[in-house]
Design goal:
The chain is an alpha+beta fold and about 140 residues long. The protein is built from three helices and six strands, in the order αβαβββββα. It has a domain of about 90 residues.
């Protein structure tokens, strides 16, 4: 498997804004975790059809631990509530939402701006932005 050599340098975490708490809670309640079968070792557990031609090098979000769809949805919701969202938006939704579970950082990416649908994956240890996500997650309590 070919290892990724660079990560998106345009990612920016929005500053924490207590005034946006109601907006983030509303988004947390409306956002949907759809998942991407290319990022699952067991896509059928998420109601997804396995890809016919999986691309090598895709990060598996369930590689380090088994995830249920409910756990992935909760992690996405927690990221919204803590304001762990990107500055970049599309259709009123943050392009990315970050969450932390068991000291492991995860990144969700918007895939359907009409429905607020996201898919996610663990952030690789060599992604420098991962350190910022872990730091801010703990700082934002």
């Amino acid at each position: 498997m070919k290892r990724r050599t660079s990560f998106n340098p345009k990612r920016r975490l929005a500053p924490f804004d207590p005034e946006a708490a109601d907006l983030r809670l509303a988004q947390a309640n409306r956002a949907k975790y759809g998942g991407n079968p290319e990022h699952k070792s067991k896509p059928s557990d998420f109601g997804l059809t396995p890809p016919t031609s999986p691309r090598p090098g895709k990060t598996l979000c369930d590689k380090s631990r088994d995830f249920s769809r409910a756990e992935a949805s909760q992690l996405l919701s927690d990221g919204f509530i803590k304001g762990m969202v990107s500055l970049q938006e599309r259709g009123g939704w943050p392009q990315n939402v970050w969450g932390v579970l068991d000291n492991e950082a995860y990144e969700a990416q918007l895939e359907n701006e009409a429905q607020g649908g996201y898919h996610g994956y663990p952030m690789p240890a060599d992604d420098d932005f991962r350190r910022l996500v872990l730091l801010e997650w703990n700082r934002r309590g």
